[in-house]
Amino acid sequence: MLTKVKICCITCIEEAKLAISLNADAIGLVSEMPSGPGVISEALISEIASQIPPCVASFLLTSKQSVTEISAQQKRCRTNTIQLVDKLTDGKHSELKKALPGISIVQVLHVIDESSIEEAKLIKDKVDAILLDSGNASLTTKELGGTGRIHNWEISREIVKLINLPVFLAGGLNPGNVKKAIDFVKPYGVDVCTGVRTKGKLDKSKLLQFFENVL
């Protein structure tokens, strides 16, 4: 099975069209965050999502931790997938699924140490996919994505082996290391933000090279 590719931190319709033209499987749209790149308004997220073909997943990255707030945000933004970059603190994943029928729920786990393996086991039956990233939600100013850092792929590989669920690998991926990452971790999909950008803008040549190295 070919590794899926998610291009994240899309900031405008032109970037979305470029990624889709190169056969991106998913587009990531970042809403309000405590830190990190690619944040755009909910109005723009909704506008971009409305122009993404049905065969391409549109991910709303949300830092909200309340089921009520997340479901309301999705209804404003109208993406077909929710990426929870932090833990739920008000409500359960089952309640979110009930509130958003037909919407895929992807939970981010920020891989810091081997405790992420147990965390993955606990969450695997509650969501549609897991995304392994390199943030740190325990910092005073939370890092919830877009760090450009690689985490311990040994842990990510163990999670992929242990759980029967699609797992996306993120964190510091770029055209130069994505093939090695796929060969080692064997994820369902890869997710890239800063690794295919130059001065914050999506770079077509880097994007082309990234796709070439995924195959």
Structural write-up:
The model has no long low-confidence stretch (mean pLDDT 94). The chain has 215 residues and is of the alpha/beta class. Helices cover 34% and strands 20% of the residues. Strands 1-2-3-4-5-6-7-8 form an eight-stranded parallel barrel, surrounded by six helices. It has a two-stranded antiparallel ribbon with strand order 9-10. α5 links the parallel β5 (104-110) and β6. It has eight helices and ten strands. It has a single domain (4-214), classed as Aldolase class I (TIM Barrel).
Throw out a few tags for this protein.
single chain; 215 residues; alpha/beta; eight-stranded parallel beta barrel; two-stranded antiparallel ribbon; 8 helices; 10 strands; globular
Largest sheet: 8 strands, parallel, barrel
User: What is the name of the CATH superfamily?
Assistant: Aldolase class I
Number of discrete helical segments = 8
User: Over all CA atoms, what is the radius of gyration?
Assistant: 16 Å
Amino-to-carboxy terminus distance: 10 Å
Topology:
Layout lengths: L3 E4 L5 H9 L4 E5 L11 H8 L7 E6 L4 H11 L3 E4 L8 H7 L4 E7 L4 H9 L5 E5 L19 H10 L4 E3 L8 H8 L3 E4 L4 E2 L2 E2 L1 H11 L1
Helix pairs in contact: 3-4, 5-6
What is this entry, summarized?
With 215 residues, this protein is an alpha/beta fold. Helices cover 34% and strands 20% of the residues.
